[in-house]
Write a structure and sequence with these properties.
alpha+beta; OB fold (Dihydrolipoamide Acetyltransferase, E2P); 2 domains; five-stranded mixed β-barrel; three-stranded antiparallel sheet; 35% strand; elongated
Length: 126
Amino acid sequence: MPKKKLVKIAEEQEVEFEEAMRIALEKLPKGSLTGKGRNTWVTEEGTGILEDSFMIEEIIPKHYSGIVLYECPNPKFNYVHNKEIGKKVPMLIPRKWQGKLIGKQVTFEAIEDDKGTTYRYVRKGG
């Protein structure tokens, strides 16, 4: 599934283009969108995130892309750096990926609640 035009995604989801563009800019990591205006293309990974976002917009968290720096003292977490956030943050990872993501480019999501923001790993492709 290669890149897809945002106009076509909005049409399939029965959403206006302006609304689709707003959601895409809010929810997708940098680099997921290319082009300008109605000639905007969305990556394969971004397409899956967007289709979920149109159905239940307020539940879908913001996605980021970053590089895993090193493992935390608690092996359930890895430190990841993202330029949008501007600092390194601990990211929760699944057990099967413990010790295997160091130095890799990963996608993760920010979950906000009353206690603060936490981050967790998201498998590529949504």
